[in-house]
Amino acid sequence: MKRYQVVTGVALLGLFVLGAAWGSRSAWSQEKPYPTRQITYMVCFDPGGQSDREARRQQPLLEKILGQKVIIDYKVGGGGALGWREITKAKADGYTVAGFNIPHVILQPLQQDVGYKMEQINPVFIFHSTPLAIAVLENSPYKTLQDLIDFAKKNPGAVSVGGSGSFTGYHMATLRFEKLTGTKLTYVPYTGAAPQMTSFLGGHVTAVFGASDDLTRFRDKLRVLGFATDKRFPGFKDVKTLKEQGIDMVEEVFRGVAVPPNTPPNVIKTLEAAFMNIATRPEFQEEQRKGGFVPQAMGHEETKAYMKKMTAIYTELAAGLKKK
Amino acid sequence: MGFSLDFLMQGFADALSWTNLFWAFVGCLVGTLIGVLPGIGPSAGIAILLPITTMIPPTSGIIMMAAIYYGAMYGGSTTAIVVNIPGEASSVPTAIDGYEMAKQGRAGPALGICAIASFVAGTIGIVGLTLFAPILSNVALAFGPPEYFALMFMSLSLIISLSGRALLKGLIAMSLGLLASLIGQNPLTGAARLTFGWVDLMAGLNFISIIVGLFAISEVMINVERSAALIYESRIKGWMPTWEDIKRSFGAMLRASGIGFFLGLLPGCSPAVTTFIAYDAEKRFSRHPETFGKGAIEGVAAPEAANNATSTSGFIPLFAFGLPTGPPLAVLLGGLMMYGLQPGPMLFQQNPKFVWAVIASMYIGNVILLFLNLPLVGWWARIALVPFPILGPLIALFCIIGAYGIRFLVFDVWVALIFGVIGYLMRKLSFPIAPMVLATVLAPMLETSLQQSLLLSQGSPVIFFNRPIAAVFMALAILSILRGAWVQFKTHAPEIALDDADE
Amino acid sequence: MMSQRKGDIYAGCFIALLGAVVVYAASQIRGDVEERLPPRTLPYAVGFMTLAGGLGLAVKSWRFRGPAPEIHWPGRDGFVRIAANFLLLALFVILIDVLGMPIATFLYISATIWYIDRKRTIGALVAGGVSALVVYYLFMKFLELPFPMGLLER
Known about the structure:
The structure holds three protein chains of three kinds. Chain A has helices at about 1-25, 50-65, 80-90, 105-110, 145-155, 170-180, 195-200, 210-215, 265-280, 280-290, 300-324, and strands spanning about 40-45, 70-75, 95-100, 120-135, 160-165, 185-190, 205-210, 220-225, 250-260, 295-300. Chain A is α/β, with parallel strands linked by helices. In chain A, strands 1, 2, 3, 4, 5, 6, 7, 8, 9 and 10 form a ten-stranded mixed beta sheet that branches. Chain B is an all-alpha fold. In chain B, helix 2 (about 20-35) runs parallel beside helix 4. The longest helix of chain B is centred in the N-terminal third of the chain and has 30 residues, at about 105-135. Chain B is about 70% helix and about 0% strand. Chain B has two domains: about 5-140 and about 310-430, no CATH class; about 145-205 and about 435-503, no CATH class. At the B-C interface, helix 11, helix 12, helix 21, helix 22 and helix 23 of B face helix 1, helix 2, helix 3, helix 4 and helix 5 of C.
């Protein structure tokens, strides 16, 4: 009886070790048909945020198009950097894709070593963008952009501008605005867009650089002074762009998906086609516009070129920031 | 968006339709499950169901998602009471007295009181939501960075009373907790600190890993060490709370509901903060503060009630402004927006039928949850009767799943194991653990609000004292610190550090 | 066995050392952005607090003369049990990524139950199997948590 127990036990422990040895034999890679099993879609920001909502919206459509289950997985931390480091290290087989956004993905490695390099981000598609705009509360004494600039010039540092995070699009927009208008503002970072807008609506900061979707949501409580876009934003037709007001800056957050470096071309093609299929559907675009987003449909090559261009711009800005 | 009985009645009529009732029930069931299970919190739970918005009508969809959210609050403390695993920070105060009660054979009554306190607080919360939503919605906006700092500072001063007689050890535990949460990137500037060049540490230590390690893994190790036959040996004294229990804790439920309700209006003030405040308030209010930490039923009722009231009042800023007070409500907001519903004052005017149906469904949901949870109490309590050689590994498995489930990184699991060792040593050396958890929970908010306030004031700390709300909290904090110091000084405790603290 | 006094002295010294390390690490933080709250301030503050707390505890215990309670450290077999359990747990964590969650769960639960209580061979296997099934069906299939499948993939 006793021996029987010991034997079983030893066998069990043996299995444990054997399993370890067997499993560690890594699988070999080859050109394979894709996709043949479930795909993990990594969201690098909190559940309920723009990235998450978009992923959830795409999830059932992706499943239909690709014919495989798509699972959403949160890798949240470090302003997105945690998830982006994971994607650059994941198996390059196309079964892990991650949402990313510009400029965060470019700015993170510019600030410090975050465990991935900009060149390792392998974009597949960009599906929408949210332009930034400067806004004050509806009951604010600043009726026009010029009012705000005049006041800021007379009282350096007295105008506080809320934004989401440091080394983010919001932060860069404020810095560029300061540079172009020759003012000194106080940039107050928040841990996300939700606390940023809450504090703004409570009157704790003078102005915000806000994303178009948030500004659309609270449009009856605030006054937008200028959009950092090339053309006027369709949701706010009567609001001038900053360019029209003599401040030459464009600042938008682009969201898309990326795969690990060295992912086979056939996999990228399949994914690109799937996202293109979704992004060009009229009802999908309509939903985007209603929420205050600008629908986009930029493929693999186009996105790569765009990222290269933006990297150059931000590298210069960040260098100026570090010198201070 | 004012209250009108007609709207509410119409809401009940809608909520009681078979479809909506069905989805409310499904939500309650899934919520209870999510609350009990490790590895999945309400935010991920609701997020998984977001695509379902394409299949069922908006009212049913939101009713179900809301039910998952408040349903998860019911089950959240089950493991905290029965096996001392607080699945989230908000259950830590419940574990203090709840697990003590379980060890005395009163796990059933503790769980029962949890269900009742959740029901009472949930219902009070909805009544508040129904009647006062328009008046209270502005509370969320009144809190800027200085007010948050003052509130967090006051909460941190609770450590003095949480530490019991081991004040020095409590303060050390607090420092360790602050230290643990400083590791990684600064929440605002993203600058790395205390990572020693280790990239894995950049995103910081997650407090779920810390809690799971400190409480549960160390508990398993202690039991393994003494080769226990059962996790705690005790004669079971009743499966259900007695009338005496309910009478004793009813006042605590009401007071904690009030505290939880008001703090729940503030975005970012998580249930973890409110449960600690409610627990401490009850301890101060009680005529027998010495029973706290030794199985006082009020110590179980208060945090549970605060937890549920907080989660319910969070719907006020959500509906009124579209401002989520925490991650689960952010997901719910996502759900609303996917249906094309814009929260805000216009929501009440344009979609009154929808809003009031959801509010009415919450009254019903709480009743469903009470009847769903009370019969389960006996079964949960019986878990402790499972022989420890089987239960111990299962608890450890739950810990691993919980830690792994945070963001599916093995790193978080290792953190939990390391904090298991730290927790074991802390227990052996009688360091109190709760102050460490509280410090870890408060630190990020404390740091961000301090940083933002100093930016706003251009470096002057006067900002914490010349704004009325902030000044009140600062005064309370300072009073509480002075009182603690005075008590220490007066009692001449021979060697506080050598006294037994709450384990 | 060790008296609580001695334990507190050691703990105090260790914590003070930790505080010192933190203070040193804080001095290495560089600040890029001009800020109102320099990035070094809080780490310094908490580091010094830890250092002071540790020293305070050590000194206070050192000066304490009186009947000190004992700390019940595990005996030799207790220590072995803890170490073995901890190792099994660590091995489990390593195996999650290698073998996948369900298989690793089965092995961990069965092996640990068997280790703690040798009389429960069958029980251990049954508990391991049931846990693996629960992990697979409840967590991975029903709740869609992306745990690694390991060997069971495809």
